[in-house]
Amino acid sequence: MKPLSKIRAEREQMSAIERRIADFILDNAQLLRDYSSQQLAAALGISQSSVVKFSQKLGYRGYPDLKYSIAEAMTPERGAIVPATEEMPELVSGDLWRRKSEAEAETRAINPPSAIEYVASLIGRANRVLLFGAAEDSAIARAFTYRLTLLGVTALHHFDYAHLGASIASCRAGDVMLAISEQGKQPALCQLARSMRERQGKVVSVTRHTSNPLRAHADIALLIAGHDDRPHVAPLLYQSGVQHLLDRMFVLLCEGRGDRLATLQANLERNKSLPEG
Length: 277
Hints:
Blueprint (H helix, E strand, L loop, with lengths): L2 H8 L5 H12 L9 H8 L3 H10 L5 H12 L13 H23 L2 H13 L3 E5 L3 H14 L4 E4 L2 H8 L7 E5 L6 H12 L3 E7 L4 H4 L3 E5 L9 H23 L1 H15 L5
Helix pairs in contact: 1-6, 3-4, 6-12, 7-12, 8-12, 9-10, 12-13
């Protein structure tokens, strides 16, 4: 596993000081080559030995070894200009597929199978599932809502906070709110997550693998990798990771009970007879 991916994957098991070091490295990876262990310690207000121990805990001989590994891993990802040739579209396409595969592998590493299985079981047992997607996540939430309804799960897609708040007001224990938000920083969504938990419902958040308020208000926080220095590529990696995670959950729901597959097939056949439009 690449060093930055390893840091993201192990961050949740780190101590408070280790998380500070991890977050600084993740946010400033491009500049890390200019920092000695002493300078990094001074920037964070910690001891130099804490930086050394952090590096060794990740499996490196010391900080210089970690810094070199990060720089080496980032070298091919700095967005070097590719000469314009007839093969350029293929080169770009190949890089995107590779980065998506890496992001999905990293997402699998930071979300244990037991967490995905637990969320699937909550959804399968819930009286109602409320889904909300912020910004571009709305389309993903809507598509997953449709898939759940095909399985016979009572799922409701919400497109604004007022709509979601009205649904939460009538929820009961065991109902599930699945909130998808790339940054997880919307105060209104966090407030609604608190309201859902007050009603003994379960809140599942799907966000980027960063520190964000929504994670803190969720019963189960699912995390999405997909970091890239290119602003036009990073959202694509994130969306691919979300889709892959929800696809895994859908398969678990399908295979968890035989009657769901029968319901799915019946609904698909019924939909074929409906007029398009």
